[in-house]
Specification:
This protein is of the alpha+beta class. The protein folds into 2 domains: 96 residues, 3-Layer(aba) Sandwich (Glutaredoxin), CATH 3.40.30; 58 residues. The chain is 59% helix and 12% strand. It has a 4-stranded mixed β-sheet, sandwiched between helices. The longest helix has 52 residues.
């Protein structure tokens, strides 16, 4: 799977340049393979990006701005959704990739799994205690009934 980042190499907007640098720098820091596709110097890239950003993700003017991120032909999102995923330690999921062992998200998932296992053990233990209490109550009731029956038979 190839992550495709659509960029504008000659953007006049410093905000767009910063966003592009942020995405590329983060992908490089995580050692995620990606390809930069320039929409400023390549009309095919620009047209492909515009056609493949989902309608609901396009701005009101209909022209999506870079950076736009895809996993092959699957749209991942724009800078804002990338940033949200980054803040949530969910960049791998955002990109449609499996987190590597030891990544923050993978460690968090493993800890959640362990907590869930512990909760199930606790729940089972609580059920066992409740069952023991119920059995003890039933045994006590049986003893009382037996004693009553013995007293009744002694009186006869």
């Amino acid at each position: 799977m190839v992550i495709k980042v659509f960029l504008a190499s000659s953007s006049g907007s410093t905000a767009i340049k910063k966003k592009q640098q942020d995405v590329v720098g983060f992908l490089e820091a995580l050692k995620i393979d990606y390809t930069q596709l320039d929409i400023a110097s390549n009309e095919e890239n620009r047209m492909w990006m515009r056609e493949n950003v989902p309608g609901e993700k396009k701005p009101t003017n209909g022209i999506p701005l870079p950076p736009q991120i895809f996993n092959e032909e699957i749209y991942c999102g724009d800078y804002e959704t990338f940033f949200e995923a980054k803040e949530d330690n969910a960049v791998y999921e955002f990109l449609g990739l499996t987190p590597p062992p030891g990544s923050k998200r993978k460690v968090a998932e493993e800890e959640e799994q362990e907590e869930g296992d512990e909760d199930r053990v606790k729940d089972n233990h609580l059920v066992s205690e409740a069952e023991e209490d119920l059995v003890s109550e039933e045994e006590e009731e049986l003893r009382e009934l037996e004693e009553e029956e013995e007293q009744a038979s002694e009186e006869d």
